[in-house]
Amino acid sequence: SGDDASELAGFAPADGPGLGDPSLGARVRIYGEDADVFQLGAQLTLFVPLARAAFDAVYSGNDGFAASIDLLTRVHTSPLDILVSVGGDARKNERFGNVDVGSQLRFGVAALVPLADDRVVLSAELHASTALSDFGAREATQIGVLAGGRYKLEDGISLGGSIGVWMDRGDQTPRVVEDVSRNEREPSDRARSVGGLLSLIHI
User: Which residues make Cβ contacts (< 8 Å) with residue 195, sequence separation at least 6?
Assistant: First the structure.
């Protein structure tokens, strides 16, 4: 069966339906207003290990409390918006197969080009993370590059998509990823990465 195969490969069986870990977070603007060239903000998120405590889940939540902190910046210069996020996750280290999952550092940068009175936004993104337990090692590092765009319709609906190359921890083979999305509400600010991994809305 699938569960037997996963156990032989060093993985626990799938959790099945259940709740994940609830989180509580806050974001603060440190410097800059919406129209300023430079903005700086920070956010902190705390995760409560409900999935393990209530459902004995392995993949749906962390084995203990976890926290995430990010420093967010935006540089707005015509015709570009440059977004940078530097942060980290603090959590108990666990091993799944040949991959260690624990505390890590994260980095992301995105360039956005608005066109046609901001109705069209083109983007390019780079994302990376590496585990603190084996800093910089290939088996402990994720790297992704994305390119995409978003188009805002007259009725407030926006259509977007992205495509890129991603390399996961424990797998040195690059793989192509894609995303197509439809948003019923028009984004309130153009400083949102199309890939959805950076978000500096109203910092």
Answer: 110, 123, 125, 127, 146, 148, 162, 164, 179
CA separation for the pair 80, 71 (Å, rounded): 20
What is the tens place of the pLDDT at every residue in 52-108? 776 666 677 777 899 999 999 999 887 889 999 999 999 887 776 666 678 899 999
Q: Give residues with Cβ within 8 angstroms of 68, minimum separation 6.
A: 25, 44, 45, 47, 87, 88, 89, 90
Residues sharing a CB contact under 8 Å with residue 86, sequence separation 6 or more, in sequence order: 70, 71, 105, 106, 107
Which tokens belong to 51? 């999935």
Nearest C-alpha neighbor of 170 from the set 126, 131, 196, 127: 131
- Summarised one tens digit per residue, pLDDT across range 166-192 is 887 766 566 666 666 666 554 444 333
